[in-house]
Design brief:
30% helix, four-stranded mixed beta sheet, 4 helices, 13% strand, 2 domains, alpha/beta
């Protein structure tokens, strides 16, 4: 594989950030690039699906918390997975078609890719 400028940038970013997200148009080589750059590290691919996540610091849930997720799902259409709202509280439940997760439970409850 030809060394890409993007590969050097991703490696540099990985030194300073625990999570690096790779986005781009369909069929542009994102997975190939991720596999090449992160061959020795775990990575997650959602297989073309999009996971809308909203993070709020409040310990209580308000109706306005769901507005951004509804808009995002409407724009993403069928590619969107079930939206997730992470908040500063403890409980986990579903409300208005959204999985609501307390911040302590969110990492274990989010979907795992391939």
């Amino acid at each position: 594989m030809i060394e890409r400028e993007a590969a050097r940038t991703i490696r540099r970013l990985m030194k300073g950030f625990p999570i690096v997200t790779l986005t781009g148009p369909r069929q542009s080589g994102k997975t190939t690039l991720a596999r090449a750059v992160m061959a020795d590290r775990p990575y997650t691919s959602l297989g073309g699906r999009l996971l809308p996540v909203e993070i709020k610091s409040g310990k209580t849930i308000g109706p306005s918390f769901f507005a951004g997720l509804r808009k995002w799902v409407a724009l993403a259409g069928e590619a969107a997975m079930e939206p997730v709202l992470v908040y500063g509280g403890e409980g986990s439940f579903r409300q208005a078609g959204v999985r609501v997760l307390g911040w302590r439970k969110s990492p274990a409850a989010l979907p795992k890719g391939s």
